[in-house]
């Protein structure tokens, strides 16, 4: 869970906003950080750090709140039922109750959110492995200057990666970068292809800077490609000198 507002004043944050050294909580500036420390962060800082630092801690907290709310809302419907994944009424570890799927029929509709989360992790791991293989193959095709094949290969797994792994996952970012590069490096690229590549890179750059930082190879690769495209457009848009026609 990416923190986008200051923990002290709730103002929107820049991608390079200062953080607490220990727990990585994000703030507008040192004034907000010192104020938050005095108002109770001092007592919570170690706990947040042990919980995986600010972003993970906040994500886990919201997850637990959402699970508790869902279990309470489904309590009447799930009486006497068991989870279709683990076959238990109470989760063995979290002791949480059951929820019911909104459009499921029969016993397949009852499950623990924790069981669903574990099942999703397995599916995500499989998706990551498949997408990594597709991405590596596409890079090889691009390097062999088989640009159309590289683009065709990436079109299907890219939206899957964005949906399953998330917009901020390094593999999603890498696949989107490689697709943009296959677009503009093709000698037969049209002006529309170049515009599409530029738009894709402009959308991608803030994600990469925020998640990976400015020095990460993916971020520098995006910014390098974007600089090349911007230079290309400047040349295309510069009118010829008088009398050169």
TrEMBL record:
This protein's UniProt keywords: Metal-binding, Zinc, Zinc-finger
Protein name, per record: MYND-type domain-containing protein
Annotated GO MF terms: zinc ion binding
MYND-type domain boundaries: 6-45
InterPro entries with a match to the protein in the record: TPR-like_helical_dom_sf, Znf_MYND, Znf_RING-CH
Source domain of life: Eukaryota
């Amino acid at each position: 869970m990416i923190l986008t507002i200051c923990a002290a004043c709730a103002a929107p944050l820049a991608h390079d906003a200062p953080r607490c050294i220990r727990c990585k909580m994000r703030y507008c500036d040192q004034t907000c950080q010192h104020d938050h420390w005095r108002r109770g962060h001092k007592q919570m800082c170690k706990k947040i750090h042990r919980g995986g630092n600010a972003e993970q801690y906040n994500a886990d907290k919201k997850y637990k709140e959402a699970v508790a709310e869902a279990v309470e809302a489904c309590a009447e419907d799930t009486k006497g039922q068991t989870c279709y994944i683990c076959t238990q009424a109470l989760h063995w570890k979290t002791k949480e109750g059951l929820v019911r799927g909104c459009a499921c029929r029969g016993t397949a509709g009852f499950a623990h959110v924790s069981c669903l989360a574990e099942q999703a992790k397995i599916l995500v791991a499989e998706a990551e492995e498949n997408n990594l293989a597709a991405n590596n193959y596409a890079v090889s095709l691009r390097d062999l200057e088989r640009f159309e094949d590289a683009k065709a290969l990436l079109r299907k797994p890219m939206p899957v990666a964005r949906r399953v792994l998330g917009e901020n996952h390094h593999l999603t970012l890498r696949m989107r970068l490689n697709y943009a590069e296959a677009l503009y490096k093709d000698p037969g690229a049209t002006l529309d292809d170049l515009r599409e590549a530029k738009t894709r890179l402009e959308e991608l750059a803030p994600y990469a800077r925020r998640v990976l930082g400015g020095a990460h190879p993916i971020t520098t690769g995006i910014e390098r490609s974007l600089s090349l495209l911007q230079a290309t457009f400047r040349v295309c848009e510069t009118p010829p000198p008088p009398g050169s026609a």
